[in-house]
Fold each of these.
Amino acid sequence: MNITIISVGKVKEKYLRDAIEEYSKRLKRYCKLQILEVSDEKTPDNASEKEEIQIKVKEGEAILKHIKDNAFVIALDLKGKTVSSEELASFISDLGTKGKSDLVFIIGGSLGLSQKVLERADYKLCFSKMTFPHQLFRVMLLEQIYRGFRIIKGEPYHK
């Protein structure tokens, strides 16, 4: 299975880069992983709604350039479906069984995802109604993908 994570912004903190590297290394046993970063646009203080939409559109265009036509796209979105780790594992397994071997997870910037990205998504996933920094969220997503593969394979890790 090929998994691509497209994320807005760079991870600057060394401890987060180290965690991303660790989970990326662990995932090599289960899938081919690619992590793509697109530039985040600067949001001015007191940005208007129109300015925020323009920023999301620009970030969205950069995201969409990296998505292949045959990819199954999972957008991380607060309005998406909340699932357990076991349900996410089952979902990933079912996609593989159905021949969907190119999965793309999309993490938006601080303003979220553009309407076009959300429309391109085949599935919208919500981890929590809480807000997390997108750099930290990348680690959380990788951990859940890793946990999911361990569940799928019946290997110890999940408790």
Note: The radius of gyration is 16 Å.
Amino acid sequence: MRVVNAAWQEWLSINVARGCTPGSLIDAMVQAGFADDDARVAVHHAFDRRPADPATTATVADPVTQPYRYDPMPVARGNLICADERDVRVLLRCERPQLVVFADLLSAGECTELIERSRHRLKRSTTVDPLTGNEDVIRNRTSEGVWYRRGEDELIARVERRIASLTNWPLENGEGLQVLHYDVSGEYSPHFDYFPPDQPGGAVHTAQGGQRVATLIIYLNDVADGGETVFPAAGLSVAARAGGAVYFRYMNGQRQLDPLTLHGGARVLAGDKWIMTRWMRERAYG
């Protein structure tokens, strides 16, 4: 079995500094004879050792010492926004945190098709471990999901263009769309979508595309009872209505991260819940 000696550590440091992605380094080490788990640990440690650059490191705002500065959000003003080929209604805007609730982002037919094509591909959802960067199954997230490659087919490409137009954020700066299913009693405890900058695992995920800056959650069905998207710090909850969506932004132009965007998925009390999520990055992703 191969060992990560000084030569390999130097190789990792050089390639991390060059901007190589964690996945490419892990693949190279596996091809060179390392066990997959050993390669992942070595790469994660290499990113942990990378010197922090104050100019490119995001910081979580502190309400006392460093309050979050709310600069203009990318979403256009007005109560009706033309998103590519579709008119989308604005139902609510919130300034702190920056949040917009939409209606009619997807048609009933698009919602149904996305649900039906996702049923047979569902797998138990994971979350990112902030210490290691690994994706783990946890008790606090009781959903199943499926990822779609960017531009995977005509429907996915059309929805992605619409989202990019609505949020005024480059299509290539978005992660692939993820469809999630929560059965009755399913929930997701309050959490942040941005990667914690003070945790070593975050560096692995921000190495490609940078930090997450905003989230769009699209509701694919009406939930009979429960299943709201809740924002505890804002005292706000958004009911799941088919075709509607909620957008929230958590990184400003100064690269501060907004802790008021703490959010979760309330427990589904009756029926089930289908949503589709788009996470937006600082730079091109994938």
Note: The two ends are 31 Å apart (CA to CA).
